[in-house]
Amino acid sequence: MNKRREYSTDKTLQSIGQADKDNLNQLPKLTPFDCKVLMKPALHENAESNSGLDVASENTDYRMVVSVNNSEHLTQPVRMEESSPDPPFEETYKNLFDSLTGTPQKNFLELSAVEECELPLIDLNQLNLGDSERQACKKQIAEASQEWGFFQVINHGISREVLGKMREEQVKLFKKPFHEKTNHKDLNFSAGSYRWGTPSATCLKQLSWSEAFHVSLSDVLGSGGRNSLRSIMEQFAVVVSELSQKLVDILAEEMGEKSGFFKETCLPSTCYLRLNRYPPCPIHPQMFGIMPHTDSDFITVLHQDHIGGLQLVKDGKWFAVKPNQDALIINIGDLFQAWSNNVYKSVEHRVVANPMNERYSAAYFFCPSYDTVIQSGVQPCVYRSFSFGEYRKQVQQDVKIFGHKIGLPRFLLQTH
């Protein structure tokens, strides 16, 4: 049985879920960047971020700032110590903080108690045992993906040494002065890999108090160990890719579908790795580390620290996920929900800021090539067929117009 206890979080968003078909008829009436509209799930574009991609997982781009001089960024003077690793949130979004005077409730979220839950925990070592244990493990994976859209795995085959080294290099990277991270020329990542904040925010409810490196694996594969960060990122990506492939194959098999589709379309070079840092937030708990969103990939594999802050929707309510440093968190993305014809669930989730402690996580987004067509073999189909590239483009258009991702409801067949 999953244990639950009280935890701090947001009350007003408890009733907000993923947009449904009925919402689509109302979209033309929405006012771009209206504060109420923007409280809906924010863009989570694996790679569809400012540079163009969403599995923003904690899987992708949440329309974060690419650099302090970005034209989308609020034009406030930046005053901070050059040696500080923290992005200049308060200086850059000064007008949003100034608007608090006299009307705090208008700008902040009202918070209430949220229960803490332990996600379903699955021991993958069962896959190496007898047939009955193996089948029971596969069934657990499928059931958790249907009922929760999230689960944890232990004995996953990724060594503590690799995970520890990955975290060590991640911390070193984010401890660099902010101005060095905005350049990151020595890392040889694609332009726009570094993001922070929310350039489209019109009130503090919409500001994500975090920074991230959202990196295409094509930037790090075959790096040949040119530096310790790129070397461990490649090692991490290779083993997590193998885990992802194993899990999607099991989920396909449990539906009675062939798993060759994922081997052919989801290559290491088409996937993404996102390194996240959530600085301490002095105005907690009225801030999000990352706004509510769903992921736009097939599955996401998350390695997080002990701080906590990840929350998800279950049965229409928000729950705080209890950290387990011995486990990796797996969640279903939009593409798998469409491919499975709603058998597996892509669940809305978010990160709540912490007032005292910084938080680190690393998310791997299992994505296909842009020309991959997503079509369910289950009849009758809930969604029309679409390519991953088309999905990304639609997400980007909706975010630009409405300030948030619409996602799968855009692709519902008229009969649903």
TrEMBL record:
Protein name as catalogued: gibberellin 2beta-dioxygenase
Keyword tags: Dioxygenase, Iron, Metal-binding, Oxidoreductase
Natural source organism: Sesamum angolense
Membership in a protein family: Belongs to the iron/ascorbate-dependent oxidoreductase family. GA2OX subfamily.
Gene Ontology MF: a single term: metal ion binding
Region span, Disordered: 1-25
GO biological process, one term: coumarin biosynthetic process
Domain of life of the source: Eukaryota
Reaction(s) catalysed by this chain's protein: gibberellin A1 + 2-oxoglutarate + O2 = gibberellin A8 + succinate + CO2
InterPro entries: DIOX_N (IPR026992), IPNS-like_FE2OG_OXY (IPR044861), IPNS-like_sf (IPR027443), Iron_ascorbate_oxido_reductase (IPR050231), Oxoglu/Fe-dep_dioxygenase_dom (IPR005123)
EC class: oxidoreductase
Keyword Metal-binding: yes
Domain Fe2OG dioxygenase: 269-368
EC numbers, comma separated: 1.14.11.13
Pfam families, sorted: 2OG-FeII_Oxy, DIOX_N
